[in-house]
Amino acid sequence: MSARAYPISNPQSETKNPKSEIRNPKSHYSQANWAIAWHSLRRNPLAMFGLVVLILLAAMTILAPWIAPYDPTRMDYDNLVAPPGIAHLFGTDELGRDIMSRVIWGGRESLRVAVLAILISLIGGLVLGLISGYYGGILETLIMRVADVFLAFPSILLMLSIVAVLGPSLTTVLIALAISQIPAYARIVRASVLSAKNLEYVIAARVVGASNQRIMSRHILPNIVAPLIVYSTVMLGGMIYVTAGLSYIGLGAQPPSPEWGAMLNYGRVYLREAWWMSVFPGAAIFVAVLSVNLLGDGLRDALDPKLRT
């Protein structure tokens, strides 16, 4: 027979193509999934409402120095406990401070603490979860047992203990929130890594000689982002009201900081005579948490293929 009947393949092309076959289909599939998820999210009116409200709240807190009508700490003794009116749309408190300005500035404090706590706990849990889930062995056992110890305590008790040791302040609340959520993130990431590291594209990347760091960063991490986004969005609402709750009992923001929970604490004494001192900060907390929860439910439905409509 002639040599044409048995074509000889090029060894260089055989060693080069598998990497491109791993990278390109995965990248295209990922982009297609995100496009489908965004389309599904846009079809959910409640989720889009939550997204719009959350964007408006974020813009309000960022632009607080320019849109707040008054200095949140400036006292006006001519307008003590003034009801809502033209000069003060949300009224004033017992020291003549403008409630509307304090609500706007208070959102900056509450949202800042909540978002930073989510980011810190996400990064910490992501590192621990990736290491324990991918490498396994005694390292996984050690990390998970430490996480179990933290999860054995009620989260509010753990946070109160941290605040009691470090002293009341928003920085302490931030540290307490982050530490309390790292074990939960670590468990979520570990479970996702355990299910992803034995999939075909990860095995193929390992066969062609990709390093562990590259496999974790390029092949596993992009495919476990969806549950982390959903969990972080839902937990953001919890972080907001826990921050406000700790400030309400005096363990968070300290006077004269205009934080929503602290404002509720100030206004409870005047609830019968000056309802606006508590209603407007409480409404801000309600709207923020509701918008985050609506967005979280929509993201869960959009990012989970089983729940897409």
Helices and strands, with pairings:
Blueprint: H1 11-42, H2 45-62, H3 64-67, H4 99-135, H5 137-152, H6 155-166, H7 170-196, H8 200-207, H9 212-220, H10 225-248, H11 260-267, H12 276-303
Helix pairs in contact: 1-12, 2-4, 2-12, 4-5, 4-7, 4-10, 4-12, 5-7, 6-7, 7-10, 8-9, 10-11, 10-12, 11-12
Description:
With 309 residues, the chain is mainly alpha-helical. 72% of the residues lie in helices and 0% in strands. The protein has a single domain (27-307), classed as MetI-like fold (Orthogonal Bundle). It has helices spanning 11-42, 45-62, 64-67, 99-135, 137-152, 155-166, 170-196, 200-207, 212-220, 225-248, 260-267, 276-303. The radius of gyration is 25 Å and the shape is elongated. It starts with 10 loop residues before the first helix and ends in a 6-residue tail after the last helix. The relative contact order is 0.15.
